[in-house]
Amino acid sequence: MDFLYQILVVFVTALVAENALFARSLGAGEILNYRRPKQILLFSAVLIVVTTLSSVLTVFINLALAEVQNAYLFRPILFIICITIIYVAAYLILHFFFPKLLSFVGGILPYATYNCLSIGTLLLISSKRLSLIESWSFGIGTGMGFMAALLLVYVGRRKLTLSNIPKSFKGLPITLIYIGLLSLAIYGLVGHQLPS
Amino acid sequence: MKLKASYAPHIRYSENAQTLMDDTVIVLAVLYVMAFFYYGVVALHAGLVSILTCYLADCICTKLRGQKINFRDHSAIVTGMILPLLMPAGIHMVAIISAGLFAIVIAKQVFGGVGQNIFNPAAAGFAFTALCFPGQMFSYPMPFDRLPILTETASKLVRGPAYALKFGSIPTNDLVDMLLGNFAGPMGATNILVILACLLFLIFRKTVRWQLPVSFLGTAALYAFFFPRISLSPLQSVAYELMSGMVLFVGVFVITDPVTSPKRDSSKLLYGIVAGLMAMLFRQYGGFEDSSIFAVLLMNAFAPLIDLISEYIHKAVRKGGRAV
Amino acid sequence: MKLKRVRRYRYATRYIRPILGNNVVLSAGLALPFVIGASTSMNNALALTIAIGIVNIPTMIFASLLGKKIPQWLRLPCYVLLASALVVVSRFAVSWIAPNIFDSLGIYLTLLAVNTILLVRGKQVIPQYNFYRAALDGVVTTVSFGIVMFVVSLCRELVGNNTLWGDAINFPIKLPGALLPAFGFILVGLLAAWAKFFRRLVIRYNLRKDNPPRTAAKLPEGEVE
């Protein structure tokens, strides 16, 4: 029961308190590109799969690197190799077994695997030294937190197109200010700043 | 033939946007009288500065956008009156002015002006000031301390009962004292009886729909009843939780903003329930001692989502009904 | 409408437009996590600008050399692998700036390997360029990123910490909340609005020089509106 509680705490932390976008501004580049619910759900699905799989592999890499000196120099390259393997495997599987799915997902797949969120999740897991199940729940929590953030921004943007915004603020600036006010609200709920 | 000169649109209904705002202004003025009774001229001075800041900022921004200033629109005055009532009496003027400027310029004008803002300007202004001056926003002077207006003094600042609740101890205030407002807290949020009377007045005048404050406060009360933080009887826990911090004030004035809350009555119920839950949960587990206003700010972003979902549901119900 | 002056202006500034006119961060919205999350001190700004220069310029040159030889789906992994190797190089290049630079940068230095300037521009634009144009593009995007980083970090460090390059200075306002990402989002949003306003101003100036607004009083003889 304690174990389940711990997993839940890590999941909720990744979802709310350390939301990748609102607390660390990690996904701010990708959030502006996806404007329709279908794209959002597709992107989030791929992202959750990637973060979950790679977070599990990370734990093994961390174990292997535990005794190596100057491990921090090799970690980025190993993480990116790990994500590249997942990407290539996913692409080849889709190419040979589900070509129709590939035409859906193909454009989004590279941007969904190589973004600040996926690499950021791996780096955070290794800096927090989470165990296997905890890192798995952290990965899922980050993916779902980003999906929630994408939905909120979509809903807000939809409402903002109806408003009489000054011309200099239309598009990117008002979206950033909207995300900033949301981030303010979440900081107020959580109450302390995070270490990066 | 009796001819009456009035502004367009010539609607016979007695309620319009101006009467909504005027009702709220009257009710907030009553709260300012109580704040004057407890804290002296400081309360009136803070209110005056805040109203001037908000109204001037609103007019200047409207002019900068090339629109005509609408002198019948009092929403900036309402924002200006709400802001100091959430803060401790005698707080530095910089905090009040920065809150007012942020609330009007960034949370309201940039998003489109009156009626088109997504976030409640008062909530956003308070959140910005709480982010900038975290130490000053939650330390309150004792009531009946006469604080001077313009000079700084070292008056005794205490933490409110919400702080005591957060650390699991029972607040040491008498319940009758708390009802009358004779305890340390935000300038306008301590006068519990007056705020309850204001709530009844606003519901009676149909300025606010009853779904919003009742669902918010009801959820908070139920949460305090079933998960009390202190080891007294559940009813006393409900009393302490609702009367400490700014939960009651937020429930009556901040969450009921007609622009930022969902449109249908059923969605207002859902909105109030979730906001109340979030406010109470983060009061217990979050950082600040009272996070009800941040919960409302966050729920403001969910209001369009709730509207979207409720439209789908109502459309499906209507279609289903017709099919049957 | 006479558009010759506008076209001439756009042609003359086509190489340096990513700096001010169509700023990479403020108008196109690339590399935003760094500008918002990591711009809490000038040391960070300097470190990230140098690092992004080291990571982007060789990778863009490599991308232009590879061109369209690799299939579309393999391009991004190649760029990112090279970029991650260059990130390790940039760690050494940046370590002289301040003793605790890696603590304050945190994970953002490693995240440069997947920065969106490289991914978006590298995939869509660079394979068509030749060697020199790609190198110029790398330099120009680095400079534009650097300008925005420095402006935002200056503001946040002065107001938030009252320090400058790590040394305390006397500044009347102190808001510790300026170091939070919420403040960063709002500040970058306001800067993006300013950039948009400036851009519209310049193009409208160029347009209005040749096409003055026509009113009845200004119509020349014989011309009908």
What do you see in this structure?
In chain A, helix 1 packs parallel to helix 7 (132-160), helix 3 packs across helix 4 (99-105) and helix 3 crosses helix 6 (116-128). By secondary structure, chain A is an all-alpha fold. Chain A is 74% helix and 0% strand. With 324 residues, chain B is mostly helical. Chain B has one domain. Chain B has 13 helices and two strands. Chain B has helices at 17-39, 41-64, 75-85, 93-109, 121-132, 161-166, 175-180, 192-204, 211-226, 234-243, 247-254, 265-285, 292-323; strands spanning 139-141, 157-159. The longest helix of chain B has 32 residues, at 292-323. The radius of gyration of chain B is 20 Å and the shape is globular. Chain C has one domain. Chain C has a two-stranded antiparallel sheet. Chain C is flat, with a radius of gyration of 21 Å. The interface between A and C is large, with 54 and 51 residues.
Key features of this structure:
heterotrimer; B: mainly alpha; 61% helix; globular; C: 225 residues; mainly alpha; two-stranded antiparallel sheet
Task: Give a brief rundown of this model.
The complex is a heterotrimer of chains A (196), B (324) and C (225). Chain B has 324 residues and is mostly helical. Helix content of chain B is 61%, strand content 2%.
Topology:
The complex is a heterotrimer of chains A (196), B (324) and C (225).
Chain A: H1 2-17, H2 37-64, H3 71-97, H4 99-105, H5 108-113, H6 116-128, H7 132-160, H8 172-190
Chain B: H1 17-39, H2 41-64, H3 75-85, H4 93-109, H5 121-132, E1 139-141, E2 157-159, H6 161-166, H7 175-180, H8 192-204, H9 211-226, H10 234-243, H11 247-254, H12 265-285, H13 292-323
Antiparallel strand pairs in B: 1-2
Helix pairs in contact in B: 1-2, 1-3, 1-8, 2-3, 2-4, 3-4, 3-5, 4-5, 5-13, 9-10, 9-11, 9-12, 12-13
Chain C: H1 4-12, H2 32-37, H3 42-66, H4 72-94, H5 101-105, H6 108-111, H7 116-124, H8 131-161, E1 163-164, E2 167-168, H9 181-210
Provide the helix percentage of chain A.
Answer: over 70%
- What profile does the largest beta sheet of chain B have? 2 strands, antiparallel
What radius of gyration of chain A results from the CA coordinates? 18 Å
Distance between the termini of chain B: 53 Å
Task: Catalogue the unreliable spans of chain B.
Answer: none
Discrete helix count of chain A: 8
